[in-house]
Specification:
Elements (H helix, E strand, L loop, with lengths): L8 E4 L19 H11 L3 E5 L1 H4 L3 H8 L5 E5 L9 H13 L6 E4 L9 H10 L8 E5 L9 H8 L7 E5 L6 H10 L4 E6 L15 H13 L5 E4 L12 H18 L7
Parallel strand pairs: 1-2, 1-8, 2-3, 3-4, 4-5, 5-6, 6-7, 7-8
Helix pairs in contact: 6-7
Amino acid sequence: MKDACRHPIYLATALLERNRWAPPPRSPTIRVSEWLPRIAGAGFQGVELWENHWRLASEEERAALRASPVPIRIFNSYIPLDAAPPEELAGLTGAVSALSGTLDGIKFNLPRGQGAPAGSALRALSQAQALPRSVRLFCECHPGTVADSPATAAQAFALWPGDRFAAIVHPLFDDAATYAAWLRALEGRIAHAHLQLPGKNCRRLALADHRQFAADRLGALLQSGYRGTFTLEFTAGVERPDTPLESLWVNACNDLAVLRGILPATTPA
């Protein structure tokens, strides 16, 4: 068994899913349960489960997910938390309750839009009252939402209690100055990080080809006092629908090896 990292690294099941960006209903093309032994064996310390891998799964598949050999730590939801329909909020609550033995958080996004996010943030705070308090709510901060900049994200987090809401950032996005601004604006509120390295024309790049860049960005995060977790969100080849699934898996494992070389290992007991 490989030495664990102080900062656990999870695998996003969306990385292996061809229909992650398909038109609704985005029906899954894989059974995550069939991949769980490989995910555990490769050294990933948890799973970030794409919502449709639960929501559209059979009861048999759900039972297998609950018995996973690698803990399901984050439920990746795209339900608009600031305006979630009652039936979708109930479904999210059911998923969280079913996975509560290992689940730490729900990933959510604020909606697309422009301007100050105060109204959206307050509605999300109200909706959150219906969700189990056993998990935290992780707001994914990136372009395409009203929390699209360090300044607008900070406005939202100023309205959210720290014990309930935390931030997800993308250390390998943006220029150095913008990245530093994210770390300053969300100081003390960042609990999780999504890792993918974007290139031109929506491509994702292999971390091995940009090791020093990744080391510099993750080093800055750790130096800011970060004590959180990571998810390998996407890897090289995900943007091409003809990339063989096995190739995506190999690329993900290669990225994991790079990350394990960058992040500090846990001191053996």
